[in-house]
Specification:
By secondary structure, the protein is of the alpha+beta class. A hairpin with a 5-residue loop joins strand 3 and strand 4. Strands 2-1-3-4 form a 4-stranded mixed β-sheet, with no helix packed on it. Helix 3 crosses helix 4. The relative contact order is 0.19. The protein starts with a helix and ends with a helix. The protein contains 5 helices and 4 strands. The chain has a single domain, classed as 3-Layer(aba) Sandwich (Glutaredoxin), CATH 3.40.30.50.
Length: about 120
């Protein structure tokens, strides 16, 4: 049974590494965002949105804060309205959707290598 569980964990990990996603938060830079202090904190303060791999922020006047999740080919997988989230809720959302936190001082390529190497030592 342990052998079977180990292989399921490995397959799950390999699928996550092989299938990467990217995200873009499109939001108003001020007017709409200022009315959503929790979302504004996540988007504008260091250590929040900027701490995730493959997540960028685009500012367009008057836009509601929305997260667009795309696959490797750029196809839209999901659009999520962020207006009702708390800062903590946005961190939880990023992790449940498959975004990984950046490792300080390590490039994206190196972090994938680190994840693969850490799996092989299990």
């Amino acid at each position: 049974m342990k052998y079977f569980h180990f292989h399921l964990v490995c397959i799950s990990f390999i699928l996550r590494v092989a299938y990467s996603i990217s995200g873009e938060i499109i939001t108003c830079p001020a007017c709409r965002l200022n009315g959503l202090p929790e979302v504004r904190t996540f988007i504008k303060q260091p250590g929040h949105a900027d701490a995730y791999e493959n997540l960028k922020i685009t500012y367009i006047r008057g836009r509601n804060p929305d997260l667009f999740i795309r696959d490797d080919s750029g196809a839209l997988l999901e659009k999520i309205d962020l207006a009702d989230y708390t800062t903590k809720g946005l961190h939880e959302l990023m992790l449940t959707k498959g975004f990984s936190r950046k490792i300080v001082g390590v490039s994206a390529t190196d972090s994938k290598t680190l994840r693969i190497n850490s799996l092989s030592t299990v």
